[in-house]
């Protein structure tokens, strides 16, 4: 396999039309059979991969180079998620534009060449698939929850946390799904998974009819705002375990294609 074939395989699985700005190939590679994959693969992991004879270091988070510098360009996925949730197109666009501008402003102090330079000096094939894996993980978790909740219209947040613990990655995670807005006996309503776009536009999700947001993290100021507004509930799930859902789906496909994959740096294997 080549790095380009791996990227296309991941992209096809995710259902995205093009490679997001926070994904990319830093150092190209061919004849890839052994892959060292993790959530955060930086300088140390690149050196480790080279020393242990791997053919590719595959990262989830955009920790280097153009993947990090262009992280803000992937914020447009928020608009897609909002429209999928039922928000009006103009509201989704405004939220997406706001998040893109916010993320772009965070670029200035970042040293985004460090790991990329290490990979180039070592000639170590290196690439990242952040929003691609998040989009896939979100779709897989959404489908699972839709199926498990189909005949339970009165499910509570406590029930939902129990269902989430049926996911292998969450069982292996070091933290448990946590209700941070709402109470255990509150009804879930419509459950919507937000991976990749961030939960920053909760009011737009709630206005669109979402009763409970599932996300990886939520800043305290947003938590307080959502509590005060009382529009809906929020459950936060282990970040590394959530990232692992999409990554595992992609890595299993690569394994089916003949690759040998070693999971490190935060990936919880689901098998």
Task: Characterise this structure.
This protein is of the alpha/beta class and 271 residues long. It has two domains: 3-130 and 241-264, 3-Layer(aba) Sandwich (Udp-n-acetylmuramoylalanyl-d-glutamate--2,6- Diaminopimelate Ligase, Chain: A, domain 1); 138-239, 3-Layer(aba) Sandwich (Udp-n-acetylmuramoylalanyl-d-glutamate--2,6- Diaminopimelate Ligase, Chain: A, domain 1), CATH 3.40.1390.30. Helix content is 47%, strand content 14%. It is built from twelve helices and nine strands. A five-stranded mixed sheet has the order 1-4-3-2-9, with helices on both faces. A four-stranded mixed sheet has the order 5-8-7-6. Strand 6, helix 10 and strand 7 form a beta-alpha-beta unit. Helix 1 crosses helix 12, helix 4 runs antiparallel to helix 5 (89-104) and helix 7 packs across helix 12 (239-256). The longest helix is centred in the middle third of the chain and has 20 residues, at 130-149. It is globular and about 55 Å long.
> Can you tell me the residue ranges where pLDDT is under 50 for at least 5 consecutive residues?
none
| Rounded mean pLDDT score | 88
Distance between the termini: 24 Å
- Stated plainly, the CATH topology of the largest domain is called Udp-n-acetylmuramoylalanyl-d-glutamate--2,6- Diaminopimelate Ligase, Chain: A, domain 1
Listing every helix as H and every strand as E from the N terminus to the C terminus, the arrangement reads HEEHEHHHHEHHHEEHEHEHE
Strand order of the largest sheet: 1-4-3-2-9
Tally of alpha and pi helices? 12
Overall CATH class of the largest domain: Alpha Beta
Number of domains: 2
Radius of gyration: 19 Å
CATH homologous superfamily identity of the largest domain: NIF3 (NGG1p interacting factor 3)-like
Please indicate the percent range of residues in DSSP E strands (runs of 2 or more).
5-15%
Structural class: alpha/beta
């Amino acid at each position: 396999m080549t790095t380009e074939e791996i990227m296309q395989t991941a992209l096809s699985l995710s259902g995205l039309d093009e490679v997001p700005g926070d994904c990319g190939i830093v150092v190209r590679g061919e004849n890839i059979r052994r892959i060292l994959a993790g959530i955060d693969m930086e300088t140390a992991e690149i050196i480790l991969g080279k020393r242990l004879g791997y053919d590719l270091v595959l990262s989830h988070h955009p920790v280097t180079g153009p993947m990090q510098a262009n992280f803000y360009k992937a914020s447009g996925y928020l608009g897609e998620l909002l429209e999928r949730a039922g928000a009006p197109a103009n509201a989704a666009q405004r939220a997406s534009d706001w998040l893109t501008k916010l993320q772009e402003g965070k670029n200035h102090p970042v040293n985004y060449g460090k790991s990329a330079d290490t990979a180039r000096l070592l000639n170590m094939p290196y690439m990242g698939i952040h929003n691609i894996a998040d989009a896939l993980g979100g779709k897989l978790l959404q489908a699972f929850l839709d199926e498990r909740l189909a005949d339970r219209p009165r499910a509570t947040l406590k029930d939902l946390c129990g269902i989430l613990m049926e996911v292998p990655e969450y069982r292996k995670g070091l933290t448990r799904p946590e209700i941070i807005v709402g109470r255990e006996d509150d009804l879930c309503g419509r459950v919507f998974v937000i991976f990749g776009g961030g939960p920053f536009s909760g009011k737009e999700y709630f206005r669109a009819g979402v009763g409970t947001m599932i996300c990886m993290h939520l800043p305290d100021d947003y938590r307080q705002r959502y509590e005060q507004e009382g529009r809906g509930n929020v459950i936060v799930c282990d970040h590394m375990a959530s990232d692992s859902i999409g990554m595992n789906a992609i890595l299993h496909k690569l394994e089916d294609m003949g690759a040998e994959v070693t999971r490190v740096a935060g990936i919880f294997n689901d098998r």
